[in-house]
Amino acid sequence: MSAASCLLTEDQFLCSICLDVFTDPVTTPCGHNFCKTCITQHWNVNFQSQCPNCKKLFDTRPELQVNTLISEMAAQFRQSAQQKASSSSSEQQAAKPEVPCDVCTGTKLKALKSCLVCLVSYCETHLEPHLTRSGLKKHQLIDPVENLEGRMCTKHDKLLELFCKTDQMCVCMFCTVLDHKNHDVVPLKEGYEGRKAELGKTEAEIQQMIQKRRLKIQEIKHSVELSEEDADREIADGVQVFTALKESVERSQAELIDTIKEKQRKTEKQAEGFIKELEQELSELKKRSTEVEQLSRSEDHLHLLQSFRTLNTAPPTKNWTGVRVSPPSHEGTVRRALNQLEETLSEQMKKLIEAELKRVQQSAVDVTLDPDTAQSWLILSDDGKQVKCGNANTKNLPDNPKRFDRWVNVLAKQSFSSGRFYFEVQVKEKKKWELGVVRESINRKGRITLTPQNGYWTIWLSDENEYIALDHPRVLLSLKSRPQKVGVFVDYEEGLVSFYDVDAAALIYSFTGCCFTEKLYPFFGPCNNASGKNSAPLIISPVNHTE
User: Fold this and answer.
1) pLDDT for the residue 5
2) Contact at 8 Å (CB) between 186 and 163?
3) 91 C-beta neighbours (distance < 10 Å), count
4) How many structural domains comprise the chain?
5) DSSP-derived 3-state class of residue 149
6) pLDDT at 454
7) Is the residue at 298 inside a domain?
8) Which of 94, 172, 191, 436 has the most CB atoms around its CB within 10 Å?
9) pLDDT score for 75
10) Domain boundaries, position 386
């Protein structure tokens, strides 16, 4: 057991709640260890059974039993740590230099005590008067120290027995009458106790900082583990997709080659039939040519006349003038194969986007509209989830630096300066709209140009019914369907802003390589009402995770 415990680090014996060595350690179903009292109190305070480390939520509070193996190992570790501390203390004591007796002559013995009144260090023998004589018993004795003169006031040659809190220095009795008159002076012991209390507070603060950093180390390690799991999963998914695509390409290539070869085989078979038929006719014609030649040489009048009738009744030959063997047309064969491959690729892309959308929806946040930023024509719902444009400025709203004064825009109350966040907005029945995120320092007054350079990462449904990414330069988007609900996802550290057609599970557009240095706010632009033709509101919708 001791050999095994030696292989483990100190952090592995510490409870992540109290940051001390385990006492009655218990193990949660997710595999993490805590002191039984710590985890019980944690669950009582938070009113839910959730692992403080991995955040796994348990439907019912687990019944926890003391893990005897970890308990024994923690006990051995505690004992080992105490032994090390004791050994270290002994070493420190042993390392202290020996102070010689100031009274001994010749060979000086080791001093047992030092007198702060006499400013002399005494061995056991010479210390005897200070222990027996009434006058000397009142002297203050301490563990032997060197340089007792350093405890004297250099100015008045008196013992430093007071502490000036005003000047933060040790002083003698004469100093309080002269240089430190009217200062806050206390006995040395009181000053010592005050300083010791401050040191205790400092030590507590340092220990707290140490504990926080241990927790941060655990948090970072856990983040790395999660990142590694994500990376492994992404690699596995990528390998699966590209393997399927590779197989699809190879299959399409094989089908293309087979199609072309099959056409060539049919052409060759047709040509072989024609050639066979022609060769047969050629043979018949050669035979008849021989008969004609032989008959033409005959000098028998009767034979020639009788044989000529038979020669004229020979089987007729085929008219080959219009017969052609045309090479097969391969036009469109490769294109059709590529179209089929494109369909396969589109199916794979759709599956990837669906999986991607499921992941980004895990970063959903609750977003509400900020009325202090809303342009005066805008009408916000009481719950802060809907916004539409009225036909005129019917409200006398106070102007402030946060409010848009010309363009009918509004921001969310919530801001984000790290991590990932996602929200969804219903754009159904809207003829025009703008959506995205903006940085805190954007210009909100007068005419505004929505570009990333100006702090806007947005997409726009324009008057011409065109979907446009307001990038620099602008990008005209070609969408297969008209989005009814748009999802907006931001990865602050990655510098990514992506827009999704939620119902179609399709990616609309992504701003990549962004450099975020300020707070980001969700941005909503319902656009002008256009005489009642664009009166439908933008609605911040709850995220229903796709199945």
Assistant:
1) 43
2) yes
3) 9
4) 3
5) helix
6) 96
7) yes
8) 436
9) 85
10) 362-541
Say yes or no: 514 and 385 in one domain.
Answer: yes
Using CA atoms, how far apart are residues 416 and 414, in angstroms rounded to an integer? 7
The per-residue pLDDT for 17 is: 84
Task: Kindly report, residue by residue over 24-40, the tens digit of the pLDDT.
Answer: 999 999 989 999 988 88
Q: Is residue 509 part of a domain?
A: yes
Apex 391 CA angle, 390 and 395, nearest 5: 60
The reported pLDDT for the residue numbered 317 is 77
- Which one of 275, 291, 306 terminates a domain? 306
Model-level pTM greater than 0.90?
no
- Which residues neighbour 356 within 8 Å (Cβ) at sequence distance 6 or greater? 507
Q: What is the DSSP string of 222-247?
A: HHHHHHHHHHHHHHHHHHHHHHHHHH
Query: Euclidean distance between the first and final Cα of the chain, in Å?
Result: 49
Same domain (yes/no): 396, 298: no
DSSP-derived secondary structure letter, 488: E
User: Using H for helix, E for strand and C for coil, what is the string for 319-348?
Assistant: CCCCCCCCCCCCCCHHHHHHHHHHHHHHHH
Residues belonging to the chain:
547
**DSSP bridge partners of 117:** none
pLDDT at 3: 43
Local structure of residue 369 (DSSP, 8 states): B
| Sequence-distant (≥ 6) Cβ neighbours of residue 96 within 8 angstroms | none
Residue 34 lies in a domain: yes
Q: What are the residue ranges in the chain where pLDDT is below 50?
A: 1-7
